[in-house]
Specification:
Layout lengths: L2 E5 H10 L1 E2 L7 E6 L6 H10 L6 E2 L4 H14 L5 E6 L3 H4 L2 H10 L3 E7 L33 E5 L5 H12 L7 E7 H5 L1 E5 L6 E2 L9 H13 L3 E5 L1 H5 L3 H11 L3 E3 L14 E4 L6 H9 L2 E5 L5 H4 L11 E6 L2 H4 L5 E4 L2 H12 L9 H15 L11 H11 L5 E4 L4 H8 L8 E3 L8 H12 L5 E6 H6 L3 H8 L4 E6 L4 H9 L22 H7 L3 E5 L2 H11 L6 E6 L24 H14 L4
Parallel strand pairs: 2-10, 3-4, 3-5, 5-6, 6-8, 7-8, 11-12, 11-14, 12-13, 14-15, 15-16, 17-18, 17-19, 19-20, 20-22, 21-22
Antiparallel strand pairs: 1-9
Helix pairs in contact: 1-2, 3-5, 3-18, 8-14, 10-14, 11-15, 16-17, 16-23
Keywords: Hydrolase, Thiamine pyrophosphate
Enzyme class: hydrolase
Family: Belongs to the TPP enzyme family.
Length: 607
């Protein structure tokens, strides 16, 4: 057996560079790195030596670097991924939030935090977290509950088993998620005689699981016996590359489709069978269809509470759930009839068995009525002196966007209103991280999207609160020439949660700056801040100015940031659905007591 002597870090980097997609490009597109004493001598040396075969980028924060990597994988439908490395201690723990984000959203990312000395010679090393009762515990054990696969590399030869397991996880459609290889810093520098065959190029195919014959037969029977079925399209439709298959299926059998946050853009917004967004942030058209459905066909959805209206939405007492999902865990939720299979394969097999079976046409007026209401709230304001609403900002972005534009967001007011109001024409033109809804994902995520699909316009919608949490990768986007457009809606605080606070009977408290403890209320010049980081930026005051700025941004050569003040209170009156947010049983506030009464009444509607 021929061998090659390499350090463990050099071996890891060489292995990464030789793991390929069926299209002939590396599965790991590159490595994000912030070096510290826990990885600079080992992985840092290895990455520098391999810079011609694998790209390394330097970010500003470990969490946001991982966000960029995760957004990259999401935008490419999990067909490629990135790696992220940090030092030990605080640098490593900064990535735990991002790991949870990838875990919830079932997205691949390879996390390589440095770890303590395996030989324990210098214990406790700088930044080591000591457990008085466990000698092998380190800060990196925090990654265990938010990793699909976790391993600690404390011997160079551990890579021979750990790396194939890592790639198996990242390319498995059911188990896909974050992989953490906690890499002991002394082990990174240790040499070992690795088999040359270990570094031979390997192609990783993403399998398409076929359904069990009994489950398929049961699913077909359930659909044939239904009178008013509805399809709930989730993110798995995109991951499976099944958007056209879903459109063909719905058209052939005349079944209305509603879209989750992750599933939005599966069908063109104007297709006659796309009844729009579903659930808490849904359209009245979609929710009305779901209320009367006797069979809810989930395709690649986790049935999150925002999708189901906390399980109050599907009101038909005879309704059944059919869950077509590649992950058995998801297919068995809420006593669903499971169909464990790839979404594309499952839809094709069901359609073939159904033949010409078609259902009665859904009420087209529901869709027309909803979009008439949506168009009204996104239209430019008639009163030019009032603060714009977030809905009007969405309208401005929509009117100036192109079909290939990707609009993205993650937290705050915008996710709900974009879900309701944005009109997606092409698949993957709507990128919403609403599984973990992580504030701070937006700018780094927008950069990752643009790196994945540089030919598309990327518009990042972010509130002032989320921008303040994590904005530093704007510097990285400028440095790398990754041209994104960032629209900051400044409502001077946490407007979304302020409205939820009021909706549950609470007094306005500690959300908008006006209601916080302060001596001097913040007056932040976001345009100047963005300009200082290298972006083109401007502050606009009207919707007309916003549209002009967006048109100009398309011709820019660097990231553009546009800031507009918005009214923190208005929200769409039409659409939406109940969301289970527990209201205190005891309170001195009359408003809370009234909200509790409404809450208890709503609980009785849950099915």
């Amino acid at each position: 057996m021929k061998t090659v002597r390499l350090t463990a870090a050099q071996a890891l980097v060489r292995y990464l560079a030789n793991q390929m997609t069926p299209e002939g490009v590396p599965f790991i597109a590159g490595v994000w790195a912030i070096f510290g004493h826990g990885n600079v001598a080992g992985l840092g040396e290895a990455l520098q030596g391999a810079k011609d075969s694998i790209t390394t980028w330097r970010g500003q924060n470990e969490q946001s670097m991982a966000h960029a990597a995760i957004a990259y994988a999401k935008q490419l439908g999990r067909r490629r991924a990135m790696a992220v490395t940090s030092s030990i201690g605080p640098g490593a723990l900064n990535m735990v939030t991002a790991a949870a984000l990838a875990h919830v959203n079932r997205l691949p990312v390879l996390l390589l935090p440095g770890d303590v000395f395996a030989n324990r010679g210098p214990d406790p090393v700088l930044q080591q977290v000591e457990d008085f009762n466990d000698g092998v515990m380190s800060a990196n054990d925090c990654f265990r509950p938010v990793s699909r696969y976790f391993d600690r590399i404390s011997r160079p030869e551990h890579l021979l088993t750990a790396l194939p397991r890592a790639f198996r996880t990242m390319t498995d459609p059911a188990d896909c998620g974050p992989v953490t290889l906690a890499f002991c810093q002394d082990t990174q520098a240790e040499a070992y005689d690795y088999p040359e065959s270990f570094f031979a190029p390997k192609i990783w195919h993403i399998r398409r699981p076929q359904p069990d014959a009994f489950e398929l037969e049961s699913a077909i029977a359930a659909i044939k016996s239904a009178k008013n079925p509805v399809i709930v399209a989730g993110g798995g439709v995109h991951f499976s590359g099944a958007t056209q298959t879903l459109l063909d299926f719905a058209t052939k059998h005349q079944i209305p489709v509603v879209e989750t946050q992750a599933g939005k853009s599966a069908l063109p917004w104007d297709d006659t069978l796309n009844f729009g967004p579903v659930g808490v942030t849904g359209a009245a058209s979609a929710n009305t269809i779901c209320e009367g459905a006797d069979l809810v066909i989930g395709v690649g959805t986790r049935f999150q509470d925002f999708t189901t209206g906390s399980w109050a939405l599907f009101k038909n007492p005879n309704r059944k759930i059919l869950a077509l999902n590649v992950q058995p865990y998801d297919s068995a939720k809420h006593d669903a009839l499971p169909l464990v299979a790839d979404a594309k394969i499952g839809l094709e097999l069901i359609s073939s068995a159904l033949g010409d079976h078609r259902f009665a046409a859904p009420e087209a007026g529901l869709k027309a009525d909803w979009f008439a209401k949506a168009d009204a709230v996104t239209a430019p304001p008639k009163d030019g002196n009032s603060l714009p609403t977030d809905m009007q900002v969405i309208g401005a972005v929509q009117r100036t966007s192109r079909d290939n534009t990707v609009v993205m967001c993650a937290a705050g007011t915008m996710p709900g209103e974009l879900h309701q109001l944005w009109k997606s024409k092409l698949p993957l033109s709507y990128h919403m991280e609403y599984g973990f809804s992580c504030m701070g994902y937006e700018i780094a995520g927008g950069m990752g999207i643009k790196m994945a699909e540089p030919e598309r316009d990327v518009i990042v919608m972010v509130g002032d609160g989320s921008y303040m949490m994590m904005n530093s990768e704007l510097v990285t986007a400028c440095a790398l020439g990754v041209k994104i457009t960032v629209v900051i809606t400044d409502n001077r605080g946490y407007g979304c949660i302020n409205r939820l606070q009021m909706g549950t009977g609470g007094a306005e408290f500690n959300n908008l700056y006006a209601h916080t403890s302060h001596i001097h209320a913040p007056q932040i010049d976001f345009a100047a801040h963005a300009r200082a980081m290298g972006a083109d930026s401007r502050k606009v005051t009207t919707i007309a100015e916003l549209e002009a700025a967006l048109n100009s941004a398309r011709e820019a050569t660097r990231p553009t940031v546009i800031v507009i003040d918005t009214d923190p209170y208005p929200t769409p009156e039409a659409g939406g659905y109940w969301w289970d947010v527990a209201v205190p049983e005891v309170s001195d506030r009359n408003e809370v007591q009234q909200a509790r009464a409404r809450y208890e009444a709503a609980l009785k509607e849950r099915h």
